[in-house]
Amino acid sequence: MRIGGMQKTSLIDYPGCLAAVLFTIGCRYDCFYCHNRSLIPAEGSQKTPQLSEERVLEYLRYRSMVLEGVVISGGEPTQQGDLIEFLGRVKQLGYSVKLDTNGSHPDMLSGLIASKLIDYAALDVKAPWERYQEICGSAADAAAVQESLGVLGRSDISWEVRTTICPTLEEEDMKQIALQIQRVPLWRWNFYRRPVDYKESDALRVDGPVLSLRRQQELAVTLHGVTDD
Length: 229
Ligand code: SF4
Known about the structure:
By secondary structure, the protein is of the alpha/beta class. The protein has a single domain (3-223), classed as TIM Barrel (Alpha-Beta Barrel). It has helices at 53-62, 83-92, 106-114, 132-136, 142-153, 171-181, 203-206, 213-223, and strands spanning 3-10, 19-24, 69-73, 96-101, 120-124, 158-164, 187-190. Strands 1-2-3-4-5-6-7 form a 7-stranded mixed sheet, covered by helices on one side. Helix 3 (106-114) packs parallel to helix 5 (142-153). The radius of gyration is 17 Å and the shape is globular.
C-alpha cells in the first residue's frame, strides 16, 4: 500500500469510534476543492513522504488496546490492488475498519464487503451525475459511483453518503442529488473549506459563493424524507 500520512488519533472520523486515520496516495479524480492535492498523483508528490506498511502496522499493533477503529481514507484507497491484503492485516489486529471512498471502484468495494474487511463505508456523492466531470475532473465516472451506491444498498454494513457543499453547487443540484441517492441511512453534508492548494485555472471557483448556512438548513428540512431510510 502507498500510504502518505497517518493521523494517530481521531474522535470525529469514525462515528462512535476512537480511530487512527490513514491517507493513501493516488486518486484519479481531480476535484477542484480537494484538500489533499499532494495525494492525488499515483506515486505521490515530493511533498508527500511515504509511510511503510510495516511502520503503520507497528503503530496499530502498539495502540490496539486503546484505539478501536482504523479509517482508510485518501487519496482513493480502493484504487490500490493490495488494499484487501493490507486490511486483512489490520483486521487481524482486531480493529473495526471504516472506508472513505469516492466510489470509483465498485468491484473492490464489493470484494471488501464480501471479505468482511470493512465495517463502515462513507461514499462521496459529489454532484448530480451530469455534473460529475465538471466538478471532479475528466476521469470521474458517475456510473461507477452509482454502482457503488447499489453495492452499499445491498450490503449489511453501516454506511453513509457524503456531499461537500462546494461553490457552484446550487439548490437544484442538492435536490437532484437527493433524488439520485434516494433513501440512504445517512446523508452527511460537509461544509466547504477553501483549499490552500488549488490549480490556477480553478482560482475563480474556489472563491465562488456557497449556499448560505441558513439556506442549507431550510433545504435540509425540504429534502428530509427524500433520503431518510
Ligand atoms: S476524490 Fe477526494 S482525494 Fe480525490 S481529488 Fe476528490 S477530494 Fe481529492
